[in-house]
């Protein structure tokens, strides 16, 4: 059996899986693991094989050291990159800018182009690039493929993509809406027509990726026409630690009145805002517990979150004109029954007939949580970004081999 090694490299961590690209969305990966706290006095490498976790705690000075340890642990259980057939290494890259609307075989030129995009994603692309360089050095004979979070939204209509600011400034500094979570929105939106038993080219849908980061997308006939995140992942819905859409004048106000620096405001809006900024926690299980304990800050944070979510659902229904399905995915979307119910509360007049009993069913399978006669169907579809990356990477690698590049 052939596998794709899927890598998601962060500034101090590397998540990885060995995935069968021909598998189903609900299949468990052959291997999953995490290298964490790279560069800290003490880190950890964990590798899960067959449901059994193997963990080492040690200092991890570099990403390459961490991956070497991970590969060694995998090798001890006969599932290392040289023990099984690895046909590609798929790398999640957060920002592809205007350059990349498709996955790319990583060669030196592509690596350089990803580096050029760092100003658009200074918190993410450098770490993604580090992971690419480390993995290419460690596995030089295997095709490496970059799969971009922004690619799915690369061609949304100009009216949705462009901001109403001076066009020369916007053009010079690549200021536009790029959107994120594209791999997840694309994967989930491709499952929905199958559930509806309709031609994908006829389906209009809204997809809601709700995790610690959250985004919404409006998709007409298989192509996105709008999405909530913007130049950066900070825009759109209120999230776990990010504020979502705010009046940009708030930034000027904090500079002038609070004397805050750009870095302080960056940290405030990205890491100390959203649900956490109001309630003190960003884990929705803890938030729910606090709401049950009558914590007013937790209740306020939840209401703001739901209010923003309903705003985007409503605006996308208008943008699409006709909606066939609304789909929830990711950690909160797949598991929080109250979020789903409250997001669609009392919308029968818009053709959304919610089924409270179906909503309470716990499952890892795609499922409908609207009534059978609901004009707008509502689904929960578990996302599987790793499988999507594996499938895209396998296809690019096969083409590279067909062209004699490997």
Describe the fold and architecture.
The protein has helices at 63-76, 108-116, 125-138, 158-161, 167-172, 182-196, 249-258, 262-271, 274-279, 284-292, 296-320, 330-335, 337-343, 356-359, 385-402; strands spanning 2-9, 13-19, 31-36, 43-49, 52-58, 85-93, 104-105, 144-148, 204-210, 214-220, 223-227, 325-329, 367-368, 377-380. The protein folds into two domains: 2-148, Nucleotidyltransferase, domain 5 (2-Layer Sandwich); 194-385, Nucleotidyltransferase, domain 5. Helix 1 packs across helix 3 (125-138) and helix 10 crosses helix 11. The mean pLDDT is 93. The chain is of the alpha/beta class. This is Acetate kinase.
Summarize the structure.
The protein has 15 helices and 14 strands. It is an alpha/beta fold and 406 residues long. Substrate binds at residue 92.
Give, in order, the helices and strands: EEEEEHEEHHEHHHEEEHHHHHEHHHEEH
Q: Give the mean pLDDT.
A: 93
CATH-level-4 superfamily name of the largest domain: ATPase, nucleotide binding domain
Please name the CATH topology of the largest domain.
Nucleotidyltransferase, domain 5
What descriptive keywords fit this protein?
406 residues; alpha/beta; Nucleotidyltransferase, domain 5; eight-stranded mixed β-sheet; six-stranded mixed β-sheet; 15 helices; 20% strand
SSE inventory with pairings:
Layout: E1 2-9, E2 13-19, E3 31-36, E4 43-49, E5 52-58, H1 63-76, E6 85-93, E7 104-105, H2 108-116, H3 125-138, E8 144-148, H4 158-161, H5 167-172, H6 182-196, E9 204-210, E10 214-220, E11 223-227, H7 249-258, H8 262-271, H9 274-279, H10 284-292, H11 296-320, E12 325-329, H12 330-335, H13 337-343, H14 356-359, E13 367-368, E14 377-380, H15 385-402
Parallel strand pairs: 1-6, 6-8, 9-12, 12-14
Antiparallel strand pairs: 1-2, 2-3, 3-4, 4-5, 7-8, 9-10, 10-11, 13-14
Helix pairs in contact: 1-3, 10-11
InterPro entries: Ac/propionate_kinase, Aliphatic_acid_kin_short-chain, Aliphatic_acid_kinase_CS, ATPase_NBD
Binding site for Mg(2+): 8, 385
Active site: 149
């Amino acid at each position: 059996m052939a596998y794709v090694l899927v890598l998601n490299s962060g500034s101090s961590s590397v998540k990885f899986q060995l995935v069968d690209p021909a598998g189903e969305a609900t299949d468990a990966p052959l291997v999953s693991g995490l290298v964490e706290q790279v560069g800290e006095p003490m880190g950890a490498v964990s590798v899960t094989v067959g449901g059994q976790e193997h963990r080492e705690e040690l200092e991890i000075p570099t990403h390459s050291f961490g991956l070497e340890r991970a590969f060694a642990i995998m090798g001890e259980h006969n599932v290392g990159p040289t023990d099984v057939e690895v046909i590609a290494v798929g790398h999640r890259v957060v920002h592809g800018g205007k350059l990349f609307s498709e996955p790319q075989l990583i060669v030196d030129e592509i690596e350089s182009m990803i580096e050029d995009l760092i100003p658009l994603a200074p918190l993410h692309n450098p770490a993604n690039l580090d992971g690419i360089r480390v993995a290419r050095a460690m596995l030089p004979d295997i095709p490496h493929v970059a799969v971009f979070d922004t690619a799915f939204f690369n061609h949304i209509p100009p009216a949705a993509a462009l901001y109403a600011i001076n066009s020369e400034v916007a053009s010079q500094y690549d200021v536009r809406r790029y959107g994120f979570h594209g791999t997840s929105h694309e994967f989930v939106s491709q499952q929905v027509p199958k559930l509806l038993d309709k031609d994908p080219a006829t389906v209009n849908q809204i997809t809601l990726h709700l995790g610690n980061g959250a985004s919404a997308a409006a998709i007409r006939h298989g192509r996105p026409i709008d999405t909530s995140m913007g130049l950066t992942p900070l825009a759109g819905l209120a999230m776990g630690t990010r504020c979502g859409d705010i009046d940009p004048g708030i930034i000027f106000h904090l500079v002038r009145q609070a004397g805050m620096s750009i870095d302080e405001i960056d940290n405030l809006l990205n890491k100390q805002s959203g649900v956490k900024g109001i309630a003190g926690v960003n884990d929705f299980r803890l938030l729910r517990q606090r709401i049950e304990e009558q914590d007013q800050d937790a209740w306020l944070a939840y209401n703001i979150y739901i209010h923003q979510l309903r705003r985007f659902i409503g605006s996308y229904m208008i943008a699409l004109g006709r909606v066939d399905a609304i789909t929830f995915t990711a950690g909160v979307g797949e598991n929080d029954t109250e979020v789903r119910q409250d997001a669609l509360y009392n919308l029968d007049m818009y053709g959304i007939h919610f089924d409270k009993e179906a909503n309470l069913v716990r499952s890892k399978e795609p499922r409908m949580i609207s009534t059978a006669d609901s004009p707008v169907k509502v689904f929960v579809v578990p996302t599987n970004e790793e499988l999507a990356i594996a499938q895209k990477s396998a296809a690019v690698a096969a083409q590279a081999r067909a062209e004699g590049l490997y």
